[in-house]
Amino acid sequence: MPKLARSDWYDLARDTNWSFRYVSEQDVFPEELSGTGRVPSEGWLAWDEPYKITYREYVHNQVTKDTTTYSVKNAFARSTLFEKLDPGWKSVILAHYGAITMPEYLASIGEARMGRFGRAAAWRNTATFGTLDEVRHGQIQAFFPYGLIGKEPRADWALKAFHTNDWIVLAVRQLFDDMFVANDALSIALQLTFTLETGFTNLQFLGMAADAIKVGDLEFGSLISSIQTDEARHAQQGEPTIKVLADNGQKDWGQFLIDHMFWRSWRVFALLTGLSMDYYTPLEHRTMSFKEFIEDWVIKQFSDQFRDFGLEHPWYWDEFVSELTWYHHAIHLGVWNWRPTVWWNPDAGVSPEERVWLEEKYPGWNRTFGRYWDVIGDNIRGGKVEATLPETLPMVCNLCQLPIVRAAGVQAGALASAAPLRHTHEGRNYLFCSEPCKWIFTQRPERFAGHLSLVDRFLAGAITPPDLGGVLAYMGLSPAEQGQDATGYAWAYGGTANGSGARAGRR
Amino acid sequence: MSSAEVAWADVAALEDVWEGDVVEVDVGADRVLLAHLPGGQLKAYQAACPHSEFPLAAGAFDEGVLTCAAHNWEFDLATGESLNPSDCRLYSFPTFATTERIFVGIPRDGRRHYNRCRGG
Predict the structure, then answer these.
(1) Where are the domains positioned within chain B?
(2) Which of A68, A84, A125, B103 is the most buried (most CB within 10 A)?
(3) Measured between CB atoms, does A8 come within 8 Å of chain B?
(4) What is the CATH number of domain B3-106?
């Protein structure tokens, strides 16, 4: 049967739309859900996704991807592949599954909101595919770790994490509520698909898939690659949305939304990817440092993309660039110190060889951070492991929910004061880790004011008994689930990065 | 382009770019993608995707169509024209091969050579 070429019918079919007679456009696209009211309806007709796909093509592609990826999983199901993985890499994937699986599923809500309340028919069509993508990502990333539970019980945190109050989850959940669960369609296009996905995660997933293959985790590599090829497509909803805003005199609103979410994306990226790339990935398989990745792919490529639309670097750009040299190192120290509070085994990643690499990639690392690890190492070797474990809670930021680590910024020469930033809103005091976090809060305090940080909950009496044991129980962490040093402290005894000595044999 | 307008650079051994392969090479300030098309024809294009400057050599090359790994953009490497989206084109360099070596002609204008296309 003869078929028309896609280009002969695609635009006509895609742009099928309604003319409203018995309801107002405002009723169909309420501003709270759509967010598109700054641009008149005719302005949205110009929305045109760069990469086009038909439903037939979509289904064909997805079936092919699923068949390939599930086949790889089946092939390795009875192998010892997982047991042989580097302990740091196991931490990478456990952290990933717990922090990302449910947000991917929740992202289907964000995509569906664009699929319903996006103002252009073309946009709604593209977002419908995105909805299907994210349902798939939630399901496949719950199923793959399910297969690991017999080998690593904490793989069930792929499902469990988002149903706990673990501090990492509090941070990730607050972020993604802001970004897409409780956001309007226009803001989702700019903040989820453009800022987070185009700017950060799409390219990071490419690198992560390659890293997985290199360390021998073919199952995870196949999974991430399969997901990335979906994200590569649906991430492209942001650019036409920015173009419509810019062409209709609303560039400043786009700039504001991107400034807001670029910082928030950076914060969670530093937490999850910064630690993975610079401390957890086996040394011999690191192709670039986290800082180099951000410089090459975010600072250069991504910022070129938004400047193509006449947008500027966010106002805090210098602070962002400065943080590349110290912020995630400080967060790593915190995560490792509070290791019982996470569901993976933090890898200190500071064996002698790794410290040489860190100093090479981050000149001054030994002076700023190495000296802390010197003390920790002395305590480990002196049999005083207890001295390396936490007794109290850290101060956390009321916006990003991560520990306030400004003292490290002072020691790195990047900040003048270690004191947290403060703001009072309707009689309640809020603490912030940085000027951008405070700025995001104060621009729209009604979005964030009601949220209670972990410390707020502790002080309000929500955590009982009010001690570390109570905190761990509140976070859903039984003793068997609490994180331990990934290599059994091999690094403190000169253990090599991978493949020899104590490290290779430890979980 | 005449020889006066381009500088011919010896960039690779023919045996290193198999039929059906794409390879990235650096030529001065330019990153060039060599494509050995099914059927034997050689082509040379800008090596970075015009959309987000991701290395095209990291993409999938199948039946003459290269799909960029970053955002799935598709290019017909017989012409350099984009297939999806349909309004973009790779910068094309002149190229030829001897029995052993591949040569690429770089315009003598002192600048990098690439096209850029916005995704919207």
Answers:
(1) 3-106
(2) A125
(3) no
(4) 2.102.10.10
